[in-house]
Amino acid sequence: QPIYLRDYRPPAFLVDHTELEFDLYEEGAQVVSRLKLRRNPDSDNARASLVLDGVELELRSIMIDGVEVDAERYSVEGEHLEVRDVPDEFELETQVWIKPQENTCLEGLYKSSTMFCTQCEAEGFRRITYYIDRPDVMSLFRTTIRADQSLYPVLLSNGNEVEAGVLEDGRHFAVWEDPHRKPCYLFALVAGDLHCQKDVFVTSSGREVELRMYVEHRNANKCDHGLISLKKSMAWDEDVYGREYDLDVFMIVAVDDFNMGAMENKGLNIFNSSCVLAKPETTTDNGYQRIEAIVAHEYFHNWSGNRVTCRDWFQLSLKEGFTVFRDAQFSADMGSDTVKRIEDVTVLRTAQFAEDAGPMSHPVRPASFIEISNFYTLTVYEKGAEVVRMIHTLLGAEKFRQGSDLYFSRFDGQAVTTDDFVACMEEVSGIDLTQFKRWYEQAGTPVIRVTDFYDPDTREYRLTFRQSCPATPQQTEKLPFHIPFAIGLLDASGQDIALPNGATTQVLHLTEPEQSLVFQNIEAQPVPSLLRGFSAPVRLEYNWSLEQLKFLMSHDSDGFNRWDAGQKLAIVVMQNMISDGSRDVPEILIEAYRKVINDTETDQALIAKMLSLPTEQYLIELADEADVQLIHQVREITQEKLGGALREELKACFQRNVQSSEAYAVDALSIAKRTLRNTALQMLLKTGDEEALQWALDQFQAASNMTDQIGALAALVHSPFENDRAQALSSFYDQWQSDNQVVEQWFSLQSGNPKTGHLQAIKALMQHAAFDIRNPNKTRSVIGVFANQNLTCFHAEDGSGYEFLADQVIQLDALNPQIASRLVTPLTRWRKYSEVRQGQMKLALQRIKSGGKLSPDLFEVVSKS
Ligand code: ARG
Ligand code: ZN
């Protein structure tokens, strides 16, 4: 059942040209395909039959060079069409009938509300027509679409529109031609009644590109931010990577039903509505920033992914890791680089580390898989981006840019591997990355244990590093990694000590299981600032004292480590409370927080981050055996005590950051002010403060933007004020029920909180008129948020949370396997919990497994768990 990287063979046939004709109807669609095929000179089988992929296609005719193929010369078996005794070069024409209206897996051609749309990555194109569905088969595409003119006035595909016109019976057509060769996973088609907002971008070489954003008419006023983000991305990729756009038109389409965030189809990006539509009244600051990042990500794929693509799906991180790295650099440049780094590391350390320690743990370049859809993971994306980031650190910005230039020019128009990428980086820098490449091959999160020793007689300071990596599925023994480890040393006054490289930060190359480094002429015991900027995706162990952490929190010149010291301080405090049963929050944490709140000098965006306690998820991830209820309780108490002890400071912070009636702006300072104000409000409300309650109610009523409105609502939801909470929730729904994106936020807020999201309430939300299990966003915002964020309810003692999730997963698998197999993830984390919980979780998994025929997606996850 699994397929292996080591079995890679070049394709037996190539497709030089692909001509597609779509006839779209209300009962289904007819797809005619004409493929110009020839044998691949690089194939190791010169006599191979032609084998095409196809899933749920009704084959109506098949011709070679215009002649019907005899029935005994071809066969359809499972997901393949085999044609025997074919010439070395020929045209194959097939005609199939498909049913987009009945397609609930949202792969291939499907309907989302009233429009037709596609999602082909990774292997969805085979649900549209018979094809050699693999990324190393690249072809020129010409696409004709015919449909009813009044229902589907807009007909789109990749490239340029070269012809359009009217047909009989109220139908019309359009012909699109894409001048760039591409694998079929980048194909896209859209047909619908859509509003189009236009803009223009002039490239650095002076070409005019028409930008178009297509949305359903009700969303016509939510296009501005997407287009602004797109123009910023286009300019940035020219400035920083020298990459210009290469077509005359670039289109974005928003669809409500979408499995993932968005898709980089050539010249025709398709987005989940929630990842591109925005206006201040309905979209939070987080939403604005997320959209900017995703628009950039998809746009950047035009080079890292489309012009240079992947040879096979084991190389997925070639395009995803690199593109996530690029979008992170972009976001850092658009706002606060420290805050962006904090956000990325938070995801990595909570969710990716957990994935890498679980049953689905896999290398950035997996060696095998059953279903590729299961490998669009945090490891491939986020750890993959960290690997590229480490290369950037090892080479420096200038050499890295030379390496990427070489990569893009050498492999333009080709389908290549992560080794090809690394080879370019080695070539321009002269740095040997042989050992470094283990980051692509070995799964698991390396652990680095640091010890230090200061000798006042010799004035030497010695740091010792020991690295190891836990066993993961299929890989018990790990070889040492090449780890770029950035450090600084602080003197007693909090100043950076000059290091041997002449700077205040130095990147060490850890390559051995154990390594030491001695610093000479150090006046007194320094405080080490370790792993600055989180220079490698590792678990760091060092025996910090609380005083050292508090010191770093206010003095470290590395913003990331200032924040991280605060997190570590809070973690140690809470871990102590968990282990010794005490419920007293030590003065040192309160004092440290007091200092943070009163700090109006430091970047206020960083201050806002520093005010948030580590999440329950992260505390669970750090525990050997997590007691969810205890962790929740201790974190709540810590928050309440901080809120109580710092009441005056928090009130001053709230009032300092109340903005007068200025217009809503999404610049860094305005965002920071809103975050601070809302964080303070939430902390105050948790303590039951009546004055803060009034502030929250006023803000909820008066808010002119969603950040403030939902900020107030969230504060109420987390507060002990039951009646106000219920009233606010229901008036919020009345106000926004016609807006899907807001209703999703409304669902999430309730399902993610134990006060509003106990199992009965979740079941009630699923009965709500606005809920639809076929819509991935709604499913994620109710069921997904419940299982991933509302941890005390999900891990309820009686196992009811697990049983509920199993029921939903089973039901969903029949509709949408990709969503089912993602939703089951929390159950696969059973190793983290007590024996009783483990038993209950495994029982739930068992029930899924024995529940009948599973999709390959769900089967792979469940059987590996
Ligand atoms: N390439 C897309 C992106 O990262 C994601 C598409 C994933 N699709 C899927 N079926 N897994 O931008
Ligand atoms: Zn991507």
Automatic annotation (TrEMBL):
A Pfam family annotated for this UniProt entry: Peptidase_M1_N
Listed EC numbers: 3.4.11.2
Keywords from the UniProt entry: Aminopeptidase, Hydrolase, Metal-binding, Metalloprotease, Protease, Zinc
The keyword Electron transport appears for this protein: no
Membrane-spanning intervals of the chain: none
UniProt domain Peptidase M1 alanyl aminopeptidase C-terminal: residue ranges: 547-865
GO BP of this protein: proteolysis
InterPro entries the record matches: Aminopeptidase_N-like_N, Aminopeptidase_N-like_N_sf, PepN_Ig-like_sf, Peptidase_M1, Peptidase_M1_dom, Peptidase_M1_pepN, Peptidase_M1_pepN_C, Peptidase_M1_pepN_C_sf
MF annotations from Gene Ontology: alanyl aminopeptidase activity; metallopeptidase activity; zinc ion binding
Enzymatic class: hydrolase
Reaction equations catalysed: Release of an N-terminal amino acid, Xaa-|-Yaa- from a peptide, amide or arylamide. Xaa is preferably Ala, but may be most amino acids including Pro (slow action). When a terminal hydrophobic residue is followed by a prolyl residue, the two may be released as an intact Xaa-Pro dipeptide
Cofactor needs: Zn(2+)
The Peptidase M1 membrane alanine aminopeptidase domain, residue ranges: 231-439
Domain Peptidase M1 alanyl aminopeptidase Ig-like fold: 444-543
Residues of the Aminopeptidase N-like N-terminal domain: 40-186
SUPFAM superfamilies documented for this protein: Leukotriene A4 hydrolase N-terminal domain, Metalloproteases ('zincins'), catalytic domain
Domain of life: Bacteria
Function as written in the Swiss-Prot or TrEMBL entry: Aminopeptidase N is involved in the degradation of intracellular peptides generated by protein breakdown during normal growth as well as in response to nutrient starvation.
Similarity section: Belongs to the peptidase M1 family.
Name recorded for this polypeptide: Aminopeptidase N
UniProt organism field: Oleiphilus messinensis
